[in-house]
Automatic annotation (TrEMBL):
GO terms for cellular component: cytosol. The active site is at H444. The lineage of its organism: Bacteria, Bacillati, Cyanobacteriota, Cyanophyceae, Synechococcales. This is Probable glutathione reductase (NADPH). SUPFAM superfamilies: FAD/NAD(P)-binding domain, FAD/NAD-linked reductases, dimerisation (C-terminal) domain. Belongs to the class-I pyridine nucleotide-disulfide oxidoreductase family. It comes from Parasynechococcus marenigrum (strain WH8102). It is an enzyme of class 1 (oxidoreductase).
């Protein structure tokens, strides 16, 4: 088979990181091809951030209807069609998929449909089926691996009956009762989406709390909010088996408890998608199931780079995008740069929403000692919940370094937390002190004014 070798860069994977890198490299004048075996857009656009957030809005719309009487609105009968919501979400995903195809064309990036794998460090083969026969061989001066990750599920009897997050976006109907397994981002977000859409949700958590790694007090505030809206959160429980037929399942716990339900979502983490990539053939080193890269996203092979979830650094879309662009700027542009993985803001789109930037109280104490940090907090029911007289309370929290007065952690649980923390991240990134926060005039009435009025 003749090897086509006309490219400066071949990108494997058209998700957040791959698309950003391909377009930026093309803008710098490189001849670029991008290989994608599934739909252009990747996890974020097709089966992650975007359809998830649209479903979050769908669940919120239903909560707002519940609040209507508190504002003097008497609603007649409300017809709810979850099928219609899912149909509209999928239509929006289709629209964005087309948009991304157009962006690639406009950028002059060659699109290659199929699954790529390294045949050597100088050549990539393209197959219609992942791991199937090679139809085309391509080579380039540089390669970028941006193939993302895949959900992982524990190996227990009946696991084939369960859903992963990808499956949730293809549902037509929702069962009355769903069991969600896990305590991370996806478990908390989907537990709230499903609850908002009227499903009875039981969340099974093997540890003693939700959202390990986040500030404990914030994670507990989310737990309280989840329970308040009727999600049954079972802590320190492990699922040992799932049995039954589609739509009529039983989740068996190791302590003997059995939960009947119509569906089970396993939200038990994700892992880089390395199988069938031919990394051995290329000599690319893999460590603990992830591609090992340096600060320039370079793998153990000098002309092969990797960005995004496949490197398992920080698995978020904006990070994958910045890593992809930094690689392209450094390799094909005139201003080399590296990504700063410190001080990343992140959010969990649960209900209540959690958002955070900087160190948790626990991490700050680990680093600076108990006397090295001062904690300021405000816990209250926001004005938007005054008339309905229900709903979660907000928690706003500042972690301040005693010796410098610098705000080293800024955290929030409550309405618009992600929007608020995105802005606070600028101040924290600039090294703002508690005195800077205090000097800022409050904007009243707002939720975030509490950040500048905490004694
Ligand atoms: C349910 C869910 C919700 C999420 N919500 C958020 C959120 O709100 N905010 C946020 O920041 N992040 C969120 N994330 C994480 C975010 O989606 C990922 O961090 C991001 O998509 C990673 O980008 P990537 O480029 O590394 O990989 P991906 O976006 O996964 O793209 C990889 C692409 O490579 C393709 N591919 C794989 N192997 C090959 C091959 N051999 N040849 C060709 N193509 C290949 C895949 O088909 C895929 O299209 C969410 C993830 C999930 C699952
Ligand atoms: N809002 C966002 O930014 C967002 C949303 C979704 C996903 N993401 C990204 O995707 C990544 C993956 O999300 P995720 O929620 O799948 O992973 P996660 O790592 O956040 O959570 C996995 C959860 O599964 C639990 N778990 C693992 N194995 C288990 C087992 N055998 N039995 C029971 N529980 C088990 C873990 O204790 C943990 O609570 C996140 O880390 C994040 O980077 C981000």
């Amino acid at each position: 088979m003749a090897i086509e070798s006309t490219f400066d860069l071949i990108v494997l994977g058209a998700g957040s990181g791959g698309l950003a890198a391909a377009k930026r490299a093309a803008r710098h004048g490189a001849k670029v091809a991008i290989v994608e075996g599934d739909r252009v857009g990747g996890t974020c656009v097709i089966r992650g951030c975007v359809p998830k957030k649209l479903l979050v809005y769908g669940a919120q719309a239903r909560h707002q209807l519940n609040d209507a009487p508190a504002y003097g609105l008497t609603l007649g009968s409300v017809e709810s069609s979850v099928a219609e919501l899912f149909r509209r979400v999928r239509a929006e995903v289709d629209r964005l998929n087309h948009l991304h195809l157009g962006f690639l064309e406009k950028a002059g990036v060659a699109r290659i449909d199929g699954w790529g794998r390294f045949l050597s460090d100088q050549c990539i083969g393209i197959a219609t089926e992942r791991g199937g026969p090679i139809q085309r061989e391509l080579s380039a001066a540089h390669y970028l691996v941006a193939v993302g990750g895949r959900p992982v599920r524990p190996d227990i009897p009946g696991i084939e009956h369960t859903w992963i997050s990808d499956d949730m976006f293809n549902l037509e109907q929702l069962p009355k009762e769903v069991v969600v397994v896990g305590a991370g981002f996806i478990a908390c977000e989907f537990a709230c989406i499903l609850r908002g859409l009227g499903v009875e949700v039981t969340q099974v958590v093997r540890g003693s709390g939700l959202l390990r790694g986040f500030d404990r007090e914030l994670a507990d505030a989310v737990l309280e909010g989840l329970r308040e809206q009727g999600i049954h959160v079972l802590l320190e429980r492990t699922v040992s088996a799932v049995s039954g037929q589609p739509g009529d399942l039983t989740v068996q716990m190791s302590d003997g408890l059995a939960l009947p339900c119509g569906g089970v979502l396993m939200a038990t983490g994700r892992r880089p998608w390395l199988e069938g990539l031919g990394l051995d053939a290329a000599g690319v080193a893999v460590e603990q199931g992830r591609i090992n890269v340096d600060a320039d996203s370079r793998t153990s092979v000098a002309h092969i780079y990797a960005v995004g979830d496949v490197t398992d650094r920080v698995n978020l879309t904006p990070v994958a995008i910045d890593e992809g662009r930094a690689f392209a700027d450094s390799t094909f542009g005139t201003r080399p740069r590296q990504v700063n993985h410190d001080l990343l803001a992140s959010a969990v789109f649960s209900d209540p929403e959690l958002a955070t930037v900087g160190l948790s109280e626990e991490a700050a104490i680990d680093r600076h000692g108990v006397d090295g940090v001062v904690i300021h907090r405000a816990r209250f029911r926001s004005m938007s919940r005054a008339l309905p007289a229900t709903g979660p309370r907000c928690l706003l929290k500042l972690v301040v370094e005693t010796s410098t007065d610098r705000v080293i952690g800024c955290h929030m649980v409550g309405e618009h937390a992600a929007e608020i923390i995105q802005m606070a991240a600028i101040a924290v990134g600039m090294g703002a002190t508690k005195a800077d926060f205090d000097r800022t005039m409050a904007l009243h009435p707002s939720v975030s004014e509490e950040f500048v009025t905490m004694g």
